[in-house]
Amino acid sequence: MFSWGIIIALVIVVLLVLLFLTQENSALKSTATAMGANPDDYSVLPDNQTALLGSSRNRPNYVPQNEHFVSLSRGFNISLLGEANENVAIHKMRGTTYAIKTGDFLAMSPIPKVVVEVETHVKAGDVLFYDKVNPAVQYVAPISGEIIEIIRGEKRAILGITILADREEVQYKQFNAPNVTTASRQELIDFLLESGAWASIRQRPYDTVADFTAQPKGIFISTFDTAPLAPNLEIALKGKEAAFKTGLEVLAKLATVHLGLNANSEEKTGFAQFNVANVQKHWFKGQHPAGNVGVHIHHISPINMGDAVWYLDVQTVILIGNLFNKGIYDTEKLVAIVGTETEAKYIYAHQGISLESLGLHENGGKTRLVSGDPLSGKKVGEKDYLGFFDDQITTIQEGNYYELFGWLLPQKGHPTISRTFPGGFFPDAKYTADTNTNGEHRAFVMSGQYESVLPMDILPQHLFRAIQCNDLEQMEGLGILELSEEDVALCEYVCTSKQSLQALLRAGLDEMRKQNA
């Protein structure tokens, strides 16, 4: 028999070996990060996330072995009722009024230069205004019609421009697009600026309009959205493959394009068919936020101070493709009207359509209208308009009620990451969403909840503390430059403390941008 001394000695040896391996693992990841590599691809220990990255047992059969594959172990899918029916015919919707709102563009000066007047008739693609700080970037009309209002706020700040749409066919301004094959990089940029399409290309860090004078590390496009009730972008691609390919060819001449592909489905995504020079394909498998472009950037080319990456969505790529193929600025796109408080459906509509034209109402305060998804979208009124970058309108019950004894009695199903409600035991069940927070605001609780749903090598709890302390150095070191509101929206959803994490993150990003301007 072994003596107790030998047993204790063996235990100590094992613990020392584990401690050594843990330290070596941390050092290896730090070295990989410093060299610009993905730290999750390197590990001494087979931790869950690293073991899943590139794992053949998780790689779908349709994913080529020579293409980058990432399987994420962290995240959470919120299953809600009110999805748009993909099997119903999709109709084009024409609104009475449309608007382009300056608030959709971060860091724009409060009073941009407006170049149109009320009662002026404009065509789709005509310039409406430009930012005085960055006059080369022009913001153009999404539809043809008559300017009926220049919306102003406090101190005469310009909030947007409203257009009464033509009753007949949309009139487009005709552009003479350069040849994609022979045009230089600068010629392509100049044309995108002239046509107004550049305003749809954003840049991280900070989520501002892309700096056309910069050379980005890459251009990122996510071809799938994992947010609750998000539209299926495969539908948006149907019939527009030629435009999407042309858009990829244009962007690939500006910088290396990273195409994020969906590895969650049973069948191969239609976006995998495009083979364009200087376009790299990356497959992502996992729960939300696996479809977020921020997650893709983190696992492909993390952002450091001084870096810039550009990103845009699938339907903007199609817009750019149509601009070069047809010479018109066509903002018509697939929009999902979802939620249980309306008829859920897909429509085709032009950018900035009024919600009233779509028959959406607040029902006397009983329904909340959200431009975007339920986690990171913006609350809007029935007199408001679809956001510039949004392709989803969500209707949610206002949570103006109280539950007796709250979580003590399992009265109603809730999608939850914990086992507080029965929904935690049935992850595939779908529920009706409402705006109740199921708890009040309180001090931060160190629970590890944020880390469990954020598939990034970031410590969000510590980052938010640094933002509250306005510690810029800590904020940068803890990865704030890699994040946007949509990346931490799920952290806010699961937060026991009911903190407004998205607003807190934006405050930190704005402070970083001002200090580094």
Provide structural commentary.
The protein has 517 residues and is an alpha/beta fold. Among the domains are: 4-45; 94-165, OB fold (Dihydrolipoamide Acetyltransferase, E2P) (Beta Barrel), CATH 2.40.50; 185-326, Rossmann fold (3-Layer(aba) Sandwich); 437-517, no CATH class. The protein is built from twelve helices and 20 strands. It has helices at residues 4-34, 48-52, 185-195, 233-237, 241-252, 293-300, 314-326, 449-453, 460-468, 472-477, 485-494, 501-515, and strands spanning 68-71, 91-92, 97-101, 113-114, 121-122, 127-131, 134-140, 145-152, 158-165, 202-204, 208-209, 219-222, 257-262, 279-285, 309-313, 333-339, 345-349, 367-371, 378-380, 392-397. It has a seven-stranded mixed beta sheet, with helices on both faces. Helix 5 (241-252) crosses helix 7 and helix 11 (485-494) packs antiparallel against helix 12. The protein is globular, with a radius of gyration of 24 Å. The model is unreliable at 32-38 and 46-54 (pLDDT under 50).
